[in-house]
Amino acid sequence: MAFGRVFVLLLAIAAFASTATSATKFIVGDDSGWTVGFDYQAWAKGKVFHVGDKLVFQYPVGAHNVFKVNGTAFQNCQKPPLREALTTGNDVIVLATPGRKWYICGVRNHCNYGQKLVITVLPQAVEAPAPSPLYAMTYSTKKAKRPFFSTNWP
């Protein structure tokens, strides 16, 4: 009897764990990476970003950087202090909260030449849980009972 309870508990844990979605990793600009002369708004169009997803900005070290900015700084290409720049050439940003997110390159006039990205992040997606294997085994092996129907209608 104790084994049965442990088994049911393990199945319940497995079913709960399967409801969480895995994060999606987006390489900003795909094969082009983070560079001047690329349309990042077109790249983002049709993509769905959720809390927990990751943006990866790839570029040659020293050629670019990444700043997270607000909407006004995005529109005006105003870069924050240099100490706030991401500069590794493989910068990973985990999208931690829902809402609009703005990113620019602060090197020379790169932002003015279109090296900027705006996205909308949605709350974390949750998949519907899969049916419990225990439920499927229990009910699939039993014969279905049909309600009584009379064929002797007047």
Number of strands: 7
Number of helices: 4
Shape: globular
Any idea what the radius of gyration is? 26 Å
User: Helix share of residues?
Assistant: 10-25%
Provide a descriptive summary of the structure in words:
This protein is 23% helix and 20% strand. The protein is α/β, with parallel strands linked by helices. It has a domain of 106 residues: Cupredoxins -  blue copper proteins (Immunoglobulin-like), CATH 2.60.40. Strands 2-7-6-4 form a four-stranded mixed β-sheet. The longest helix is centred in the N-terminal third of the chain and has 16 residues. It is found in: Membrane. Its main location: membrane. It comes from Citrus x changshan-huyou.
Keywords:
four-stranded mixed beta sheet, single chain, 154 residues, three-stranded mixed beta sheet, Immunoglobulin-like, alpha/beta
Question: How would the blueprint of this fold be written?
Answer:
Elements (H helix, E strand, L loop, with lengths): L1 H16 L7 E3 L12 H5 L4 E2 L3 E5 L8 E3 L1 H6 L13 E5 L4 E6 L11 E7 L10 H8 L14
Q: Can you summarize this structure?
A:
The chain has 154 residues and is α/β, with parallel strands linked by helices. It has helices at 2-17, 40-44, 71-76, 133-140, and strands at 25-27, 49-50, 54-58, 67-69, 90-94, 99-104, 116-122.
